[in-house]
């Protein structure tokens, strides 16, 4: 189940959050290759956040998924989520950071022959 958690210093009052959540859900689902009903999105606004030493609109995102994340998927997630935040919240793509975690990365499959 991919989970996208976004914190921003933008006030969400007056923002169509239903549309924002829908766009983010569709994007994550399509890019990661998981059904929409398995995607969770959290967006927190009015967070005390600075980027580059100033309080202009910015966002920090973190996505955690079990599989489906490689370098190409990371690039697509950063570009697409950045575009959505720019269009919906007026956050420049240069002021958005996304941390990406695949919980299956680094796992070693068990040795089928334990004597080796």
Structure notes:
30% of the residues lie in helices and 22% in strands. With 116 residues, it is an alpha/beta fold. Strand 3 (59-65), helix 2 (71-89) and strand 4 form a beta-alpha-beta unit. The protein is globular, with a radius of gyration of 16 Å. The mean pLDDT is 92. Belongs to the MIF family. GO terms for molecular function: phenylpyruvate tautomerase activity. It comes from Sesamum angolense.
Low-confidence stretches: none
User: In which order are the strands of the major sheet placed?
Assistant: 2-1-3-4
Helix/strand order, N-terminal first: EHEEHE
Helical proportion?
A: 25-40%
The total of beta strands comes to 4
Shape annotation:
globular
Name the structural class.
alpha/beta
Radius of gyration: 16 Å
Q: Characterize the main sheet.
A: 4 strands, mixed
How many helical stretches? 2
The pLDDT mean sits at 92
Strand content: 15-25%
**Alpha-carbon distance between the two ends:** 35 Å
Layout of strands and helices, then pairs:
Blueprint: E1 3-8, H1 17-32, E2 40-44, E3 59-65, H2 71-89, E4 96-102
Parallel strand pairs: 1-2, 3-4
Antiparallel strand pairs: 1-3
Using brief descriptors, characterize the structure shown:
4 strands; 30% helix; Macrophage migration inhibitory factor; Tautomerase/MIF_sf; Macrophage_inhib_fac; globular; alpha/beta
State the gist of this model.
InterPro entries: Macrophage_inhib_fac, Tautomerase/MIF_sf. The chain has 116 residues and is α/β, with parallel strands linked by helices.
């Amino acid at each position: 189940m991919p989970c996208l958690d976004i914190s921003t210093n933008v006030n969400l009052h007056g923002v169509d959050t239903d549309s924002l959540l829908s766009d983010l859900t569709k994007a994550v689902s399509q890019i990661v290759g998981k059904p929409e009903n398995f995607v969770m999105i959290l967006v927190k606004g009015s967070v005390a956040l600075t980027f580059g030493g100033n309080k202009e609109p910015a966002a920090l995102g973190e996505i955690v998924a079990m599989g489906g994340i490689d370098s190409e998927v990371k690039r697509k997630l950063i570009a697409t989520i950045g575009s959505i935040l720019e269009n919906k919240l007026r956050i420049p793509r240069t002021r958005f950071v996304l941390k990406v975690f695949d919980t299956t990365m680094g796992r070693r499959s068990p040795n089928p022959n334990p004597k080796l």
